[in-house]
What does this fold into?
Amino acid sequence: MKPKLILPLIALLSLPAAARPDAGLPRFNLDIKIRFENLDEYPDHDFYLKYGLSRRNPTDGLRWTKLDSGALTQLEGPGDQKTAVFLVALPRGTPPPPVPKENRQDWLAKAPPGGLQSAALQGVGNGSEITYRAHIDGDTLSAEFVDSVNPFWRTVMLICGSCCLTVFILGSVVTVFLVWWLWRRP
It folds into this structure.
C-alpha cells in the first residue's frame, strides 16, 4: 500500500468513532429491582415508580411502573441511561396520567394532580436489588432506604472466596507433602 493512501484511510476509518465515542462498545440494559415492604399499610393508595429509561436521553423514555407491596419490581424498558426514580401514591383506582410531549422534566419532578410524590429515591444503582419503606404523613410521601444487595458482586465474591480457599488447601497439602518428603530423605 502506498504511503499517500494510509493517512486518508486512517481518517476515513476514524470518522464513525469521532461521531460516537461509544461506537463498537456493547450496549446493555440497566438491571434495577426495587421493593417496598409496607405498601399494604396504605390501602387507600396505589403506588407507582415514575422515572425515565432510554439509550440516549432518559426523558425520552418516561414511564410509570406499578408496585405491589413486598414484590421485587424491575425498572421497565430498554436503556442504559436513567433519570431519578420517584415513588408516587395515587388514590386507589386512579390511573396514572399520561406522559406529556412537552415539559417532560417538569412532569417528572412534580407530583401528579391528586397524588403524592417522594423525593428522588436514594441508592438506585445498576445490578442492585433495593428495599425501601414508604411513609405517608399528611400530604407528604417519603421513601426510607432499608437495604441494598448486588447479586452480581455477591456471586463474584463467592467465586473469589472459593478460589482462595482452594489455593490455600492445595498449598497446605503441597507444604505437608514437601515437609514429609524432606524429612524422609536420607
Observations:
- The beta strands are 33-36, 45-54, 62-66, 73-74, 81-82, 86-91, 116-117, 129-137, 140-149.
- The mean pLDDT is 83.
